[in-house]
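hi support,

uploading two proteins for the ticket. first:
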Amino acid sequence: MAEDIKLVKSTENDHAVKNPEDYEQPEKLYEQLIATIKKYHPSTDLEVIKKAYDIAYNAHKDQKRRSGEPYIIHPVSVAIILAELELDKESIVAGILHDTVEDTILTLDEITDMFGAEVALLVDGVTKLTQLSYSKDKVEIQAENLRKMFLAMAKDIRVILIKLSDRLHNLRTLEYQTTAKQYEKARETMDIYAPIANRLGISKIKIELEDLSLKYLEPEKYAEIVECRNMKMDGGGRIKGLVDEVDALIKEAGIQAEVYGRMKHAFSIYKKMINQNKTFDQIYDLFAVRIVVDSVKDCYASLGAIHEKYKPIQGRFKDYIAMPKANMYQSLHTTLISHDGQPFEIQIRTYEMHKTAEYGIAAHWKYKENKAGKNTSEKEEAKLSWLRQILEWQREMSDNKEFMSLLKNDLDLFSDEVYCFTPTGDVKNLPKGSTPIDFAYSIHSAVGNKMVGAKVNGKLVNIDYIIQNGDRIEVITSQNSKGPSRDWLSIVKSTQAKSKINQWFKTELKEDNIIKGRELIEKYCKSKSIVLSDIVKPEYLEKILAKYSFKDWDSALAAVGHGSLKEGQIINRLVEEYDKKNKTKVTDEEILENVSENKEKKLAIIPKGGIVVKGIHDISVRYSKCCNPVPGDEIVGFVTRGRGVSIHRTDCINIINISELDRVRLIEAEWQGGSNAVKGEKFLAEITVYAENRTGLLGDISKVFTERDIDLQSLNSRISKQGVATISMSFLIGGVSELNKIIASLKQIDNIIDIER
């Protein structure tokens, strides 16, 4: 993959390469792969695996890894990880071939011909993920990468399983990369790959990804934790004694079970120390005893036997069997006090639950003779519903920052969930911080739209009540309800609820929005002396509707009424289209005849701002305050009665709407020297910013001007009932290029909708 350097010619690195005698032999690794596959599917035909290995071996034969080893070692090792997850034959073949399209002369068409469309789809998906770039400092790029990952998962989630296996092997051999590369890949893994492995429930991969990442992100802390953990656990001696004790207790209760112990992995200890501000000596649950039984009944029977023998710690019992985690994890967790006074955790689960905990969604594609993994049951399909929800939401979002916010806050990819109950006892899981409104919309749109109140655990609560784990929620509805309030958008936590509320306003109030939009547009035209009937014609509307993706004029009016589009945006563009087809051609002779008796056709420089006016000299020039032109703008002069020439921008609304009689008073003008008329001179510019109102918005806007050492001359702000802020401001600048940079910076601020001059 991209983490490895192909055809290494030097060892310019922080770490030396391996000695040839220390190389892993590809043939030995291939034998290990075959042996691993035969453990879970002894009767399979391995011809296609051998064929894939031979082709990959020849394709990569001239390539080396950073360690100096033959490159083929990497894809075979990835295939071994996939086999350890007990995946199907197509996944393993794709794992062997996953780098061939990107790094060799082998093409996707050739893979399709040799191994079929299914394998080619998997290889192509992994190749595309490999080409993604990541930067922790660039939120938009990171969000876009995650977006593409989820799209790849939608086509076939095995693509991600192969990519996770690839990343795991690269982390295992990260010691041969530079220190900078080690940190970069470890950070990327911790930010993206480990959370995805966790969300898919694949603890086998997730735990190792986290520990290896910590090893390179915090090497000293990692080494210290591992050393202290091993010392405290007496090299595993304490765990063995406790496991033997619990095993005897379970057998005495007549329950068939497999009992073993495990130490808490390094990153889990590190996270607890950081999040809870504890020292290592204050971490007591360093190990756990796991009991694996045949049935759910045996799980609870084992729990009873354990609680008779050991004293449980209050508040430390969790039943993930009755309420599974979002990633399908099920188990009983209880924390007890051992006979020597040390706390320890016991996890009790069935063999099926254990497979799900270890393999997560990978169990979906385990190699089965009847290919049942390809035809999922309704229960298995439900396990993937969260993924489809992500895809549905992300298609509605054009803003990458909004999508990143969704991932971090609403989907719990990086945060916790809260569990609550319906009145009938069904479990609902929602993003942490959700309210009864989120709960109502998670049931159905109609329930949320008709909601007038809520009860939690039998008591009336405010609609902004924060749901706690275990709450029983009852939604109170009324047919007389007028629908959701816009205030709800600032209360709800889940994107599902926000989407449904916004949808209600767009559909249910469409007629009202059309009327309101028409009123706003008519008012705007009246204030600008624009004849609406002249510009609202099919030939002009066609381009405007296409630009904003409206199906008809009513949809455009509804958007203006809803507040998602400003009336000025629509009208000004219509005026531009009208002007293109109705522009009056006036000759220089006509202009000169009407503005001056001076018939000399020459350019006269007017000192004001270094403006050049055609055919006129020795006359006063002033800038029009209606449009405030600055150097770089296209300008035109207007000969006034007794006040000289006023300079306007060519897109000034007063120039666009000038009467036919007055058009002969227009005269050509331009800036001397282009966009920088007079060095050091400043010009007044005015802009209007439209944004969704939020705390700190004005501070963020002011910061843009402060950083450029520009003084604001004036600032005026007003907020509409829809929560849209209209901020008008004026300031002094040198020219249009400087203005464009300011506008570009302002557009980067969150919640900005549009900026107009």
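and the second one:
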Amino acid sequence: MAEKTQAVPPSNLNGISRPGRGGVVVKPKNMKGTLGRLWKLTKGQRNGLGWILLLSALASLASILSPYVTGRAVSAISDGDAVILVLGCMTGLYLCDWLVRFLQAFFMASIGQRIIHYIRRTLFAHIRTLPLAFFGRRRHGELMSRLTNDVDNISTTISNSLSLLLTYSFTVIGIFGMMLYLSPFLTMVSLVGVGLIFLLTKTVTKHTRKLFAAQQKNLGALNAQVEESISGMAVVKAFCREDEMEREFGEKNDRLCDTSIRALICSGYLMPLMNVINNLLYLAISVLCGVLFVEGNISDIGLITSFLLYVRQFTRPFVEIANIYNNFQTAVAGAERVLEIMEEEPEPPDREGAVSLKSPKGDIELQHVEFGYVPGQSVLKDVSVKIPAGTQAAIVGATGSGKTTMINLLTRFYDITAGSILLDGRDLRDYRMEDLRAAFGVVLQDTAVFAASVKDNICYGHPEASMEQVREAAEIVGADSFIKRLPEGYDTVLTHGGMELSQGERQLLTIARAVFANAPILILDEATSSVDTVTEQKIRRAFLKICRDRTSVIIAHRLSTIRDSNLIILLENGKITEQGTHEELMALNGVYARMYRTQTELG
């Protein structure tokens, strides 16, 4: 929406300032290139923009013609002619202006929202194709901001600012042309006042921009303090730091208040001073017109009336265009951020001739696997291991040794840098991705609970599932008892990532989801890290039952939970240093044995 001319734009709680006079304007890096890419992206969705251009030109006609018609009315009165026709023309002009502006808003709302709907849908569709590596190097909040705030900025500009920018531009050109037509000499004099307004605006905004930048910085610091305090309130209370927290908040709030006051006062100078210059210009032109009329250089009183009205209108569109252009720059900068995601390479497609994976046995082999998230920094180094079909394998090691990375490679969340990973004797990359992912039932460290019912969370991806099947999966992992205690049982709708549940209960739901999937290969990454010992033992017994005829790979820090595994793999600094059964590794008396004894003694 175009900024009003009275005040500086307010800031919201997210630290986002709407650009206006002196406000913080986010400038695009390459406006011409971005607009060209945005134009290309919206091909086929721009039907009607030609009408908007025409309506914008017509919408400016009232501002351009009304002073001239008013002058003709004054001339008609002074000459004693009938003015009914002139007044009728003005009435018709204003009625046409209302109709044109209504049609302009009507078409712009439809076209703008259609374009934004397409951009948002295209962006979201592209995001779902991106590899997990993309999300690993991006903060979720930033991606959400691009999908919502940046697209909304584009929406506001297309729906409101674009049509206003076109209308004001046509108005300035039209008024300037009419002023030149009426009196080139008076027009040149008027341009002196316009130059003074531009100089004043540039001087004031140069200073206020620094103040608004400081305001945004202080607002960001205050928001960070609020978020940190609220999210960590339990720790704050546990360490009796409430007074210190309040003191820090007060200091940041005071700084923000002081900076905001100075920014608003400084920017408040602009409009009164511009009005003074505009009034002085009007007065000077009026006096000059009077002198020229008395001396006989101007004989038409209507011409003077029209020109004075044009002088009144001439400077205002410049101010509005400057404000709208700031909004336009911010929107284009948002479009750059959106297009930056659109240019990200999607997940590699299936190889040509990729085969389907109908009934996998679960025979896994890693051959000299190398991988690093950052080029030149290997996380896994020459890893080779065989996990025969039906094996219950466990991966252990210190934090950062590469355990989760092995899981990411098995499920092809990432592709290896060198070597190969075989499933049933064939490279993972030879299979269709959809078939490969379906072969794994995965429980990751971070519990993912969706805003849906408990039942839908368990049978995620299988909406046709019966309640009996869902309940059976929940009973296997011991989740049925707490689900029954929920207000609506399995029909309870979870919100905010399942905050109604404890961390352990959320983890039980994700384990039940993996059990329900009934995949031939189970991947469990710290699946019992957030449950109590009693529940852990129940899950362990359930795992022994459900893993009996399938391959399973378990990552665990509690070594007691993987004692029954057929194969235990110890990773150190990205390399396999020990592997075997629990008894074999204890007999080896190496790192695993020391880790196990330490945990046993601590337990």
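thanks. also noticed: Residues 184-231 form the longest helix (48 residues).
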